[in-house]
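Protein of interest.
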Amino acid sequence: MPARLDRTGVRRGGDRRGAGRLGRSRRDPGPAAVKARGGRSRCQPDLLLPEVVTGPVSARSIAGIARQLREGATTSVAVTRRALDGIDQTDTRLNAFALVDREGAMRAAEQADRVLDSGEGAGPLTGVPVAIKDIIHMDGLPTRCGSPAYPDEPRDHDAAVVARLREAGAVMVGKTTTHELACGVFSPPAANPWDTARLPGGSSGGSGAAVAAGVVPMALGSDTGGSIRIPASVCGIAGLKPTFGRVSRAGVETLAWSLDHLGPLAATVRDCAATLQVLAGPDPADPPTEPSPPPADYSAMLGRGVDGLRLGVMASPPFSPMQEDVERAFHDAVEHIEQLGAGLVPLDIPELTCTLAAEFAIVGPEAAAYHRRLLRESPELIDPGIRQLFAIGTIMPSAHYLKGLGARRIIRNALRRAFNRERLDAVITPTLPATAALADQEMIDYREREEDVTSSYVRTTAPFNLSGQPALTVPCGFDRNGLPIGLQIAGRPFDEVTVLRIGAAYEATTTWSEHRPPVRVE
């Protein structure tokens, strides 16, 4: 049976430092128990949480599947067939997959089983089914980018990240849906498995939905202003945007070349670490990649906890305003991390309030420049809203773009000064100020004001695209409608090890990751 929870999601076992140490934790009967009785929490009278699965999240994680494969408890053919069956079971409701490569996946699974049976040459992901966002080239499949403007012709090469996944033994089951041209978080092609009437986030919404539903333990996404962390947060999973330059983007369609990042959306923080271990490293085909080799083991520090780390806590603009339930969950998460032994420093960086202006001043011109052929040859095939954005980027004065680059430098320098002045290892923020919006919802109502959905989602994630710092989201609660809430952890450039360490410590001492959505693979 699952561990009993308090309203902060603290794991009640007494075997982890900080678990059950909050005063409220001892009194509250726990949302899982309240749900089972059909009642309501005394601390959050309107909050009813989803059911807690009977079993650890590791059963559907990369680590868990890889262990079963190594031990001979299952085969890659079996787990790959389960993933393909899971697509059949869920995708009529989720539309998470743009393309499914059944034959290729089964051939790769059979080869993986031969490697595993031989006992030689197995990689860290051998036999594990994964998916990739449909802006990433994959040999033998078209790259449609969610747009009819792209030719429906198979590519003749793998993107660098796909090649590295194959080398590690992963089985690619297909390509996940994306907003057209990876542009936006609104009007999604996919649905949220927690409530199919709601957004799964974007633009990597298909990847988020596929992982949350348990179809695959990991799917690759891209992140220009939050497009890994937004869907991971609203779908209740982990998502990592590595440092700019940590992962090659060669063979990937671009939105904004100076802001684009690639990374995993995954069942657990440990899965994010395992995937980054495979993806990270220099690549001459993508000059901005860091030339020095990455750390030898991103997982090495995952069990070290947060004791002695110094973390900045940011809850002022642009991270506020936020919905009441998000604010409550964030403060509970901060309190829990403090109980685990971290030192906390309140942090206010006024320069971050120019995040949206800087982000959009850069994205528009860069996207318009990259897609200029589409705009010239087949504009009628591009969504009118995106076409308008690109048109604005085309006519935007160069001075405006340069001001955006200048604002990015201001943001980057302000964050660096704050980290150095306060001797910070990382900062923690709400990933998003709001939970998943309805698919046709245009505005989010905060107590202070109304704000459009895109601006709401991007203002809390884009600061770390502009600065290039690594940023991770992990589940930290649910709102009164049973929708997931995320906690964002951002670190110093190229220090993903510490970011993952903090996320793993929080994840290991709470049970938010063990909740499953209504639409899921059984």
Remarks:
- The first strand starts at residue 97 and ends at 100.
